[in-house]
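Summary of Year 1 activities. Much of the first year was spent building the evaluation harness for sequence design. The harness presents a backbone, in tokenized form, and records the residue chosen at every position. We chose the following record to illustrate the format because it has been used consistently in internal testing since the harness was completed.
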């Protein structure tokens, strides 16, 4: 990783300051002649060593000896100008070094590309696994939803059945209560012992209305059903009847 950062640091000024209009610059402290030659070389018909020599030839003021100055604009040689350069010893030696460095850089990029492809495949496999997990979760969710719907339906049917049964029980029990109430309503209060005082009052009312026959009937019943005191009162009232 450290080597990668160093290489990108070296190439960064080239990428930033390259001019498509046949100029390059301004140069930075990290710029190397062979790096610039690799970047500006028109095609493979000329070598990196020829491109380096052409750069030095058309930009003599950009160098102090063999050292590239910082902060200068370089004129990029044309293909024709580069082809006019032969193979001097210095260019050949520098070209070998540049070629070796370029080969190392190419191998590094190939290695990075392989790592990228492996990482991409690993991510794709992880994505596939996640998709399967999501599908499984969706299926579980559907199963849970179906189970919940069944439970809701079962609860609904149970409640409905219970309410129906309760309604039937109410309908069955209610008439029985009504029958009991009717029987209680039919209780003959006047014919019971509790009704004798009321009969005495009724006999007195008949006497006040001069309805002696009705009074006599009521008093006769009291003399048969009442206690001694009630019978005595009935006898006293009968004496009032002519």
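For this record, the design step produced the sequence shown next.
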């Amino acid at each position: 990783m450290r080597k990668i950062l160093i290489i990108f640091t070296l190439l960064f000024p080239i990428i930033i300051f390259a001019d498509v209009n046949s100029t390059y610059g301004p140069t930075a402290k990290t710029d190397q002649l062979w790096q610039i030659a690799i970047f500006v070389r028109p095609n493979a018909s000329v070598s990196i060593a020829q491109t380096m020599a052409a750069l030095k030839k058309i930009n003599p003021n950009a160098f102090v000896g063999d050292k590239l100055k910082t902060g200068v604009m370089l004129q990029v040689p044309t293909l024709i100008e580069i082809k006019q350069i032969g193979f001097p010893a210095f260019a050949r030696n520098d070209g070998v070094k540049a070629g070796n460095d370029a080969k190392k850089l190419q191998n590094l990029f190939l290695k990075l590309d392989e790592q990228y492809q492996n990482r991409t495949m690993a991510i794709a496999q992880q994505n596939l696994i996640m998709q399967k997990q999501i599908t499984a979760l969706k299926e579980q969710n559907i199963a849970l939803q179906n189970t919940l719907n069944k439970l809701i339906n079962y609860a609904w049917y149970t409640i409905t059945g219970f309410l129906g049964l309760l309604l039937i029980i109410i309908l069955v029990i209610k008439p029985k209560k009504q029958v009991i109430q009717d029987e209680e309503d039919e209780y003959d209060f006047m014919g019971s012992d509790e009704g004798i005082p009321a009969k005495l009052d009724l006999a007195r009312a008949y006497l006040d209305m001069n309805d002696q026959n009705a009074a006599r009937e009521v008093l006769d019943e009291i003399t048969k059903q009442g206690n001694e005191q009630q019978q005595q009162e009935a006898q006293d009232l009968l004496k009032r009847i002519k």
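The helical segments are 2-17, 33-40, 48-58, 79-83, 89-185, 196-208, 212-225, 228-238. Quantitative recovery figures across the full test set are reported in Table 2.
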